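> run fold Drug resistance ABC transporter
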Amino acid sequence: MALIQVKNLSFCYDGSYEYIFDDVSFVFDSSFKTALIGRNARGKTTFLKLLMGEYEYHGEIIKSEDCEYFPYPIEDIKQYTIDICYEIDAHLQQWELERELNFLEVDSDDVFYRPFETLSKGEQTKVLLAVLFLKHNAFLLIDEPTNHLDQSSREIVARYLKRQTGFLLVSHDRHFIDMCCDHIIAINPTSIEVMNGNFSTWYFEKQKRDEWELAQNSKLKKDIMKMEISRRRTANWSDQVEKSKIGAADKGYVGHMAAKMMKRSKNIEKRRNKAIEEKKELLKDIEEYDDLKIFPERYFQPILISFSHMSLFYENKILFEDLSFVIMNQDRVLLKGKNGCGKSSVISFILNQGVQCQGDYMIGSRLKISYVPQDCSHIIGDMDDFICSYHVDITLVKTILRKLGFSRLHFERRLEELSEGQKKKMMIAISLATSAHLYIWDEPLNYIDIFSRIQIEKLILEYQPTLLFVEHDTFFQESIATKIIDFDELI
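> ok
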């Protein structure tokens, strides 16, 4: 057993007055399969970088072994895959790499002598993971490996990770965490919690604990309110006594008595202020996530979109054949299947983005669509200008972002300085602030933290917008979808 000890860790980025970690201490075992969870921009990737020794910090991080970080940076993606593997680890044995890729269901003969850029995102992830787990005498840090994996690949990678020991994994996919992790480190607003078990166990215990703490906090807040009222009464009484000295017959005597009463009342007020502050210190540190709202419109016809025996083509390549489905008011339709099967192409066709088709289809006239794209690389520039370009209420969008975990400091940054998760939240907030008949979301949860996913699920179930979506998060699929279009059945 090798422990990693964090003692009185404090860290903030240069030029920032906002601490990512402020005097936190905790211990975890490097032999465990541990998931690191928390809100976007709460410090998960930063903590991995601190373990790698890339930033200066205050406090101590005590570890007995070096760390390896995933994903590896690839300088020349045009190189053969096998050459890139040897660049990462010059001492790896090819037979060992082939064995690891076999566990990950990747054909090594197919990928080794292809340029790395020609591999799918899923294949690239699997190859780099295989190299990572051939590193000996190192503690492995795995940062969001699932973002480019379809559901089938997530299952394969989760089973692969379950066979391993000794890693710290950042992921927002609850099902993925449950499959491969046995410990949780949760970064809360001002503390870090370490717990034995998977995500479902941790979250169940957290809900019970939060319910109790919220009840205690409610009682404490009532007590504080009563004490505040009492303090104000004392202060008001002191003011009245001071005023009573004006015009008094024996000003010397009245002044003397008023001074004594004033001193006594000030001491009482001081004690009550101290008691109020002590009560406030007892308020628990709970990860709060306020309810979101959406403003859907009902389409004037029951059917919004229908496909009948449709085939789609892209650059004369057939993507699929004989696709039929209908989207009706309040349907939540999941497009399910492996990467590259044509899910995003269906969305592109509905949005009139140049995909060819054969077959019968109907897209309702005057249909208002709100779209969250998979790719957020276009999100650059000033935040207010970007929001205004979508003709939505800036205040409403920022209110939604606050509920999704944005701090006030994030509103001062240019959009290109935001994390990928924050950029995705920007698009989701704009979509939620848009009044539409149909919401089309293409992998909306990529890079989005667990707590925000829970908020979005609750929102959809409460307001029941008409939704067409692609998403590989199993929990989200099972919670949200009312219809499933499985593209694997079309092949």
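The chain has three domains: 3-199, 206-281, 303-489.
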